[in-house]
Amino acid sequence: MAADYTDTASAAYRAALQVVESVEPRIAAATRKELADQRDSLKLIASENYASPAVLLAMGSWLSDKYAEGTIGHRFYAGCQNVDTVESVAAEHARELFGAPYAYVQPHSGIDANLVAYWAILATRVEAPGLAAAGAKHVNELSEADWEALRHTLGNQRLLGMSLDAGGHLTHGFRPNISGKMFHQRSYGTDPETELLDYDALAAAAREFRPLILVAGYSAYPRRINFATMREIADEVGATLMVDMAHFAGLVAGKVFTGDEDPVPHAHVTTTTTHKSLRGPRGGLILAVPEYADAVDRGCPMVLGGPLAHVMAAKAVALAEARQPAFGTYAQHVADNAKALADGLLRRGARLVTGGTDNHLVLLDVTAFGVTGRQAESALLDAGVVTNRNAIPADPNGAWYTSGIRVGTPALTSRGLGTAEFDRVAELVVDVLKNTSPTGSSKAKYTLADGTAERVHAAAAELLAANPLYPGLTL
Ligand code: PLP
Predict the structure, then answer these.
(1) Domain boundary among 290, 323, 356
(2) Which residues carry this modification: N6-(pyridoxal phosphate)lysine (predicted)?
(3) Residue of minimum CA distance from atom 13 in ligand 1
(4) Is 246 a pocket residue for ligand 1 (Cβ < 6 Å)?
């Protein structure tokens, strides 16, 4: 985060909230309260972070008022010169930061980025029956009749992604998401013994299924992926390799994941959110090799609504921050802290999926504590520890109650907690879990032993007070 922002940022926020208050006081109050709540909780949600005041302030402007459908220099609205500048700067930072030939910074979220990417891969790869006859260069230029024929082909493509209970994301081909309905989907899991990705099994599944798209990436897998191997598998079966690095983009940006662990040189298309370990505003972006760039560039209006220029401005600021050496140090601390957290949990008798971590999260199997993920999540919350329940491989409690909790380090690392503090966090988590018991046969109701919530709250408050969020920022 920028070093000396506090007085200016405090004044800016105070002024902004006063203006908001004059119109709708409840919104100003909720905004103030949110800061207080975030300051007071031990945030261990692996997908959340704290963006810098520079990132947050970049979003609060009249850039929000401008419509700019289209792409840089080619808009469907007049007067987009400043949005062009904003989008160009953000895309330039993204290309430089990740070493990618092409970057698209318009996606409003990670799911939107994945939808644009799927569309772009379909548009680039699927043979359009009428393309040559129509004299068109791109499927977007086909006639309605050609589209009618093409619809049947587009809707019949195959996608291979990581299964949900192994840590994959809904957008990687699962039913509640359109990706699970528009593609013939199959998923790969992890080895039942080691719980690690089994590349041989994955390759065998790919050979048999022959997907158009192989998706790599995860929301809840606590290990690094070998993207060179993923690319070999994709090449062997003629698939496009799409990597969704939403969770670990910060570790890529900070050069903790390099070589075979850096997806960008290996994937055809890489998507990400900007608000998780990358510590930017809520949003998404896409990196691609030139072959897919033209189709990705048509994301708006093909898939997306008008770009959010104020959020692209904040993405540019966050990406500029991520290019600073301090971000590399931060990313390394995120990984070191996850390791310390995992070691602390293991030492205190917990079972971790895959036996540990080498990224920014751990997946804790709470079965041995006699509770479900849902009960663990709620009891931890009572004690001021914010995590989220998560399925574990072959979860006997299913995706709603689950048997696991996902615990991540990006947010608290931004507050300055180090390995010693994360060992203490492990102690607090285990303290709560040991003192939680289910009520009867309920998978949701539980009892927390007397005094536990107070004890853990007090210990968490000490950790938080020693590592303040936005130090010096007063409203
Ligand atoms: N991809 C992955 C791997 C994710 O974990 C998530 C969110 O949790 C997304 C995509 C979706 O991001 P968003 O919530 O910004 O749409």
Answers:
(1) 323
(2) 276
(3) 110
(4) yes
